[in-house]
Amino acid sequence: MESNQIASFVVRFQLAAVEKDTAKKHWRIKVTHVQLERETLFESFEEAMEYMKEMAEQV
């Protein structure tokens, strides 16, 4: 792997909803891959992390 390869991400969390009974928060997560200028939306932190891992491994 070359040492100059970089994968940068901007992650934004936006509160989408709060359940009345449980007060559980649901988030809309937007991940922007900086080098590709690509935005992708996720509903869970785990999905967003898996996406970033996959994209970083492709660099």
Can you lay out the helices and strands and say which pair or pack?
Elements: E1 9-18, E2 25-33, E3 38-42, H1 45-58
Antiparallel strand pairs: 1-2, 2-3
What is the count of β-strands?
A: 3
Helices, by number, come to 1
Question: What is Rg?
Answer: 14 Å
Order of helices and strands: EEEH
The largest sheet, given as strand count, sense and whether it forms a barrel, is: 3 strands, antiparallel
Which residue ranges are poorly predicted, with pLDDT under 50 across at least 5 consecutive positions?
none
Report the end-to-end length measured between terminal Cα atoms: 9 Å
Query: Which overall shape is indicated by the principal axes computed on the Cα atoms?
Result: elongated
Structural class: alpha+beta
Describe this structure in words.
The structure is a single chain. 2% of the residues are buried. With 59 residues, this protein is of the alpha+beta class. It has a 3-stranded antiparallel beta sheet with strand order 1-2-3, with helices on one face. The chain is built from 1 helix and 3 strands, in the order E-E-E-H. The chain has one domain (9-58).
